[in-house]
Amino acid sequence: MKMNKLVSVGIACAMLLGGAVSASAAPAAAQKPNQTAAKETKVQHKPTKASQQAEQLAQLQKTASGLGIATEGKTAKELKAAIQEKHKALAAQKRTDTLAKRKAEAEKLGISTEGKTAQELAKEIQAKKQEQKASKQAKKQQPKANKPTKKSS
User: Alpha helices of 46-152 — where are they, by DSSP H?
Assistant: First the structure.
């Protein structure tokens, strides 16, 4: 009786293992057609070089028109160069405006602006403002200390 159970269990295990091996082999064979189909779909959806260049040119034209650059008849390289030049010019204008603003503020505070950069002026302006703030705080504290209290009067 024990022997029959062991044999039947062994046969059942062999059948299960055999079924599992054949089941795992079948999906591998079935996956290959799916992989080739997936590759074909990728190839179909992959944009061509010409379409990528067209998209890039359209993006450059959009950027250039936003910056006020004429885009008629220009190639992508020409547009890139024009956009870079415009960005450089805008950055230089911003630096000039910042320096002028800081010089005006420094003159209001009585700071000399001769030969100083915008960063140097900014540091001096900040130091001067902190100095003024500290002196105002000191002036506020001083009258309170000198005022007689009601009890002492």
Answer: 49-66, 76-109, 118-146
pLDDT in tens, 6-32: 677 778 766 766 665 555 555 554 455
Q: Residue 60 has what DSSP assignment?
A: H
CA distance 120 to 88: 23
| Residue 76 near residue 57, CB atoms below 8 Å | yes
What is the Cα gyration radius of the chain? 40
Structure token digits, residue 137:
């705080």
Torsion of CA 127, 128, 130, 131, to 10 degrees: 120
Nearest to 121 by CA among 102, 94, 96, 95: 102
- Between vectors from CA 79 to CA 78 and to CA 81, what angle results, nearest 5°? 65
* Model confidence pLDDT, tens digit, residues 26-46: 555 445 556 666 666 665 666
Q: Is the dihedral of CA 110, 111, 113, 117 positive or negative?
A: negative
The pLDDT value recorded for residue 39 is 63
Burial code (b: 16+ CB inside 10 Å, e: under 16) for 129-147 equals eeeeeeeeeeeeeeeeeee
Q: Coil, helix or strand for 73? A: coil
